[in-house]
Amino acid sequence: MVIIKRVLKLQRILMKSWSNRVVAVRRVTQDNTGKKTAGVDATNT
Predict the structure, then answer these.
(1) Buried b vs exposed e over 6-24: b needs ≥16 C-beta within 10 Å?
(2) Among 16, 17, 36, 44, which is least packed by CB within 10 angstroms?
(3) Alpha-carbon distance 26 to 21, whole Å?
């Protein structure tokens, strides 16, 4: 039970961390360029 509590606490810290959000945004915007993702990237209207 102690390990589960530690994991949950670390997850909460990561969810509220500003620096973690910045890293996540960078991953989505820069590291995923060129990947085939769903969305409005390659729509022909």
Answers:
(1) eeeeeeeeeeeeeeeeeee
(2) 44
(3) 9
